[in-house]
TrEMBL record, chains A, B, C:
Protein localization: Membrane
Keywords assigned by UniProt, alphabetized: Membrane, Transmembrane, Transmembrane helix
A GO BP annotation: ammonium homeostasis
Lineage: Eukaryota, Metazoa, Chordata, Craniata, Vertebrata
Family named by the database record: Belongs to the ammonium transporter (TC 2.A.49) family. Rh subfamily.
UniProt entry tagged with the keyword Membrane: yes
GO CC annotation: plasma membrane
One Pfam family from the record: Ammonium_transp
Major site of localization recorded for this protein: membrane
Membrane topology: Multi-pass membrane protein
Protein name in UniProt: Rh blood group, D antigen
Length: 412, 412, 412
């Protein structure tokens, strides 16, 4: 039986934090050094702002869980980037004896962190910070493994592999949420709401993601002699896809509303769907209108997904998805994947190339989906034990479990 | 008679959004392509942050209208940039057969969008999103037309023409607000207030505008051989003008207050007046102290305007200006124009040059004012019809007209 | 006897503002000109965001003092940068006849401003804006004098001298707070609290400081031929120190909590301690794990300081430190200084060099501490007079002293 009162974090969180942090420092002592490569600094800053501030404030929307949303995101991200730097450097350590820190490795680490923050979005409010940390570390391990598998066995390009972060994170999180589902908890989530204040804070997070997404998608695009415009094309495509996405999300939000009104959750989440889809499809998109059409389609499925699939998932499959990661990252990611497939096939000169690409591209998705779902399931089972002392049903979505409120002022 | 209850947006907003968005995509299919020119990326990001986050959160200050303030700004901006890209590219389409998207065209599009957001500031809370969208598209059309007229017939430099965006937007918005004025609505605007929470969100918007304004003013300044320091001079001038402007606005806010206290509205708006004035006058300002004096004068007239002219406008002319665009953008813009005139005359070698410049400079202003006011009037008359179903008087400045609040939490 | 009611700011704030502002403009008229040196623009922007938005919103955490926190920071910063530009240019004025404004001089001015904002943190809520302005100007004067003394007599490098800004600001503020302490005020500070809303705003400030700190520490690092990687090393060291600092602060926050929970104040402040310490120690840190260990130690002493030393200071020494500047800037700064000493000694080839460096390094700290504390005491005595009309005990930490609330909406 789950404990009815939140217990002190004292014997759980600090040991985990210090154990991991000490371990990371030890690895850094022996294996990590600094390399010089300044060119990406400003786009790195944009990605950093998206991961820390964007995801952090996006997670503040729950009315009583905003300290946890922002605070745990910072905590998880601070730990996850170190882990991602280590994991991504394993190969270099094997070959060159050192893990090198440079702008590129930090950008990649922040992207892996973004993937884990997406996964966490599905279980936000129903877990404690220990669980969130472990989820992040396991998710990143899986995602790095997935990238290594795709690059090694399927010769997928690095950029295409890393842009699967949305799909990997979303399906990992969904499986996790499914395993961690608790019977009879639907009625008790009365704190799972938005109010004016937390709504605005989360819109702020949305806007930072929305504004800097062109940097996120373009930062790792490499300029080569054959196609000098790739990097800028990624910037413009993302910009246009997001603009159309914002318009479309507003339109479908009203259209599917029984009262004919806008829904803040859609504005806050589904406006970002275009950035997800174009990120995955990017390498095959050459014209601005294609990017815009992708933005339209992504916002469409994202809004419909939030409105209709999210409640269905809860009641039919007992899968509760706090931040709607299926609709915001999962489905638009798969849409982007499909568009890339179609565009590449349309671009192919002959049938053989097209079929070969299709097989290869479908394998990419299948491996990513299987790995993310299996690892999500395993992580879920590992974290289901009462040993982790998750918050009891009545205390879900509540900061008071985790934060001192000794001097909370009475509202005027 | 105006409808007494807010009606569903369903048959109004989505059709407009999808019609426009589809139209834009069609134009993009046939006419728009990407050009490569990366140099402005980081300053473009600053402008982007100002337009989306700065203007967006500046508009959150009304106590019950903050979702609409931030949300509609995003929606309007997402649509307006596309329209501005198309309109600004018409000439290139005519000559070269294509509209080219590059960093410069996006920066210009965002500046046109800023102009339309200024106009919208005058009618914020008294209109619905359909009206806001149409205002933005018409205002941008007028502003682009104005720039074309000035450049074609008066040989005004492109940078000087675009910096009139504050004047154009403000007077367009004022006329609009005058036409859309509703008898007997003064007593009913009890929701037109600031509280601690929305005040802080809007101060955040102010700070983003204040911090990144040097980029806004300098991004389009071109460095030439005759005057290599122009661009940096624009940065430093704007920086200094804004610093002085913040100090001065605080001083006059206290001085004109019956209780001898600071007024948040002044801190939030009039601190920005220096950036407006210096933006217009920039090309004639060569010394730091001149920039500082402009900042002083701009904040002075802006604060006095907010304190004394805004209520006068309401009662004497029945013109209700929600965001005080006359005081924040209109008057400081005209001040900048006057300073530019005086400095250019003082710089002239002989009387003939001075008189010629004066005539030319006065024509520039007259054309801009006439065009903005006439188009504002026309737009106002077009939108006055009940066909558009504006929010009834009692529902002005209220998010509940437009946003689903099914799960709004009861305040603790 | 202190006045029991807040009096109008009219005869105090505006005269001071206009007197100072006019004086500054006059100095600018005669002595200041613009120099061209664009290279630092983007990092300058990051520092600007930290000073205006970061410090501004960090100061919004008090439940009834958030307008003042953000507003006064803007006001003080706008004035202080001008003063710092003038003071830092005195030497150049003496030798070259002009004070030159360039990116570097603005960055230095903003860092001096940051130092004064740290000092202000110790007396926030217990002073009026006149006092804050004078504190800032005197603190900057002292800090610039300190830098000049260190560089002239001890040949301390410019970068090392300016990075003492945390230590100087913190001890200046502590002495100030000690002198300005009022008997019997402990019970009355019931407004000195955080709530959900102001907590989130201040976390936003924290995140901006946290994200952009790598730019803050690295912007003035000069790349030379002997050590080409210095600048990037400063970026990576700060990044890693902050990541570890965030993790460690969370760990010790829980560990020292009687309820075993996180404390928002620690998350909001102590996560930044790593950036302070590494900023001071930076020039001697060459390996990533050293930076991480510094981040760990800094967050440790910062969290313990906030938990145990802050209350002790209040009851044993009658020194009330609103923002905990001792724990956040003072102690981590001294830690950084100690680490630098140890690392330099360990790096020394022979004993003579080590001893010489130690003597020199200890003198640096002693001069900085003495000067900051003496000037803090003097400033405190100057501002203790009732002439300045500080807010009465009952009105401390309250916006209503300083801000018009005529149209404050009643909370729904």
């Amino acid at each position: 039986m789950a404990p009815q009162y939140a217990r002190s974090l004292r014997f759980r969180l600090p040991p985990l934090l210090f154990f991991l942090q000490t371990g990371f420092i030890v690895v850094f002592i022996f294996y990590v050094d600094i390399e010089q490569n300044p060119s990406l600094y400003y786009k790195f800053q944009d990605v950093h702002v998206m991961v820390i501030l964007g995801f952090g404030f996006l997670a503040t929307f729950l009315v009583r869980y905003s300290f946890s949303g922002a605070g745990f995101t910072l905590l998880v991200a601070a730990m996850a980037v170190q882990w991602a730097v280590i994991l991504n450097g394993v190969e270099s350590m094997y070959h060159r004896g050192k893990i090198w820190i440079n702008m590129r490795s930090l950008v990649v680490a922040e992207m892996c962190t973004a993937s884990s923050l997406i996964a966490i979005g599905a279980v936000l409010g129903k877990t404690n910070p220990d669980q969130l940390l472990l989820i992040a570390l396991l998710e990143i391990s899986g995602f790095v493994l997935n990238g290594w598998l795709l690059q090694t066995f399927l010769k997928v390009q690095f950029l295409n592999a890393i842009m699967l972060l949305h799909i990997f994170g979303a399906f990992f999180g969904l499986m996790l949420s499914w395993v961690l589902y608790r019977q009879g908890s639907e009625q008790q989530h009365e704190k799972e709401k938005i109010n004016r204040k937390t709504g605005l804070f989360s819109v702020m997070g949305t806007l930072f993601l929305w504004m800097f997404w062109p940097s996120f998608n373009s930062v790792l695009v490499e300029v080569d002699h054959l196609d000098r415009g790739r990097k800028l094309r990624a910037v413009y495509s993302t910009y246009l896809a997001l603009a159309v996405s914002a318009v479309t999300a507003a339109g479908f939000s009203v259209l599917t509303s029984p009262q004919g009104k806008l829904n803040l959750f859609h504005i806050q989440r589904c406006t970002l769907a275009g950035g997800v889809a174009i990120g995955v499809a990017m390498s095959a998109v050459h014209l601005p209108w294609v990017a815009m059409t992708i933005g339209f389609a992504a916002a469409l499925i994202s809004t419909l997904g939030s409105r209709y699939i999210k409640p269905l998932m809860l009641f039919a499959f007992e899968c509760h998805d706090t931040c709607g990661v299926l609709s915001v990252h999962g489905l638009p990611g798969i849409l982007g994947w499909m568009v890339q497939l179609l565009l590449q096939i349309a671009d192919s000169d002959d049938l053989t190339t097209a079929v070969r690409f299709a097989v290869f591209h479908i394998s990419t998705l299948l491996i990513t989906l299987s790995l993310s779902m299996i690892l999500g399931l395993i992580t879920g089972f590992l974290l289901k034990f009462n040993f982790w002392r998750p918050p009891p049903n009545k205390k879900c979505f509540d900061d008071q479990n985790f934060w001192e409120f000794p001097h909370l002022a009475v509202k005027k």
